[in-house]
Amino acid sequence: MDTILQEPLRLPPGAIPDGCAAWDEEPTRAWARAEAPWWVPVRPRRWLLEQSAVFALIVAFCLLTLTDLPGYLIALLPLQVVWGVWRPEVVRFSVPVVAAALAWAVAVDGVPWPAPVCAALLLVLSVTATELRARARARQRGIALAAADGVTAVPPTADEPLRRGRLLVGFGGFVAVPALVLLGASPLWHDADDRQGAAGAGLFLLGLACSVLLSGVLGRRRALALRGAPAPVLRVLVRKDVHGDAVVFAADDTTALRPLFTVPVMTQADDGEADEEEEELDELLDGLKDEERGPLHEAVLYGTPYDGAEILLVSAAPKPGEPPLTERSTGPVRPLSERGVRRGLAREKRAARAEADYQELVEAARTLTPVPVRRWRAGRVDWLSTLLVAQWAGWVLLVVSDPGPWDATWVIVGGVAGATFIPRKLFWRVTAERTGVWLNGLRRPRHVPWEDLRSAGRVAFDVRLRVRDGDDWDLSALHWPRLQRRRGWTHPHDALAAELSAMIADPALRPTGESAEKERGRPLWPLAVILGAAWIAALVVRWLS
Fold first, then answer.
1. Which helix (H) or strand (E) holds 286?
2. What is the pTM (predicted TM-score) of this model?
3. Could you count the other beta carbons within 10 Å of the beta carbon of residue 325?
4. What distance in Å separates the CA atoms of residue 71 and residue 465, rounded to the nearest whole number?
5. CB 21 within 8 Å of CB 232
6. Can you spell out the DSSP letters for 15-79?
7. What is the pLDDT of residues 267-303, one digit of tens each?
């Protein structure tokens, strides 16, 4: 999206299959124009998958507590959203099942008319989006095959072991266990509503488990198909984005003006090499900024690129004299629409402004005078954020007045989880001393030596302190960058991250003394216990009154 003036790193001639055509600007324009409409979700990044699952869970919980829908509809309707974003292959089979379940609910269970109408609109939207996406896939696949002009080659890693899909299959099987337990135990509930709720929850979890399993199986099948026979080949340009994904451009787009698609990749290596490369990649991404893109690499693309496809890339090595890099996809190809490119460019500009503001804070922090001990703690922003998040407690007490055992279990568990969340939001403390920083928590303060601190910075609404052992520390609160820039305000969490960044980079700025035990913050579990007990007491008073 931004201009790159340097020449792309070139592949050695021996790494390019004979007759391999360059995927130039003209055929790639036709490929990009064959995309699905803008409102069809075709770029399921991990955060979108997670958010769709969480959204579906919230919708299912609301349907369970606020409506009289049967349990099977409470499970199937939110799952339709997940399948539409995540696994469109399922929609063609799920729509007839959900439609039949809806007809049964109207005819037998007497469901009132608003729910069937809304459900029918959801089904129509799902099947329409799925068909448009399938047709776009077929068009893009045909255009890419035509561009390859029948030239194929065997991928260079056809004989190496393949781990694609194993993690998803294992995780899907893990999630399926509690789902089957809920389904099997649902007849044991005495109340009919509780039996229905347990069956609906089990069916919902089972649908999520099957979605994960199907993703692993399909990904593995497509990866095996790519390795099992000669695949179409195209010459392209590629570089990495800040997430470590490969961004593919046309072979003659040397200024990187129009990215075609992104795809998550992993360098083909054995287990030991993969671990070492992953550590090196983490170190690289720690210092990689949105406006600092890596160089373009000349590459050969094995496979047929389209929405959801599996591919393999052989790209030029970053250093002269090294062998080419072979990277296989670890997720689906995600096309970039014109609208998505424009939004990405605007997002990069906002990120560049935010990074510039943050660097100003870091530079200002370099003028700090070292003190024996430096401390940060929760303030008004944290209290306001917690107040807004905790409003759901009053809503639950108001709405859920006479729950059955199933609803009561959900409310109690959610309240206890909130009781462990609120103390950490309201009473967090960071204490920096000569040897490192102390981070208070539920059980006890945690000490992290300076040499184990990798970076500090903002990620969306979170301030993240990255630690070498992977046990990072996060802090989230309300964040309003435009208003801050207009008013000249400095977010306290940004100031915390900037000062820690300066201390990590320059040991001369670090505190010179050692903190006392009382300065490190007390364990927060007693407050969590009090809040949890108060929540249960409030529920008992409300439900027995």
1. helix 271-286
2. 0.71
3. 18
4. 42
5. no
6. GSPTTPEE--HHHHHHHHHTPPPTTS-----HHHHHHHHHHHHHHHHHHHHH----HHHHHHHHH
7. 765 434 444 444 444 444 444 443 345 689 999 999 9
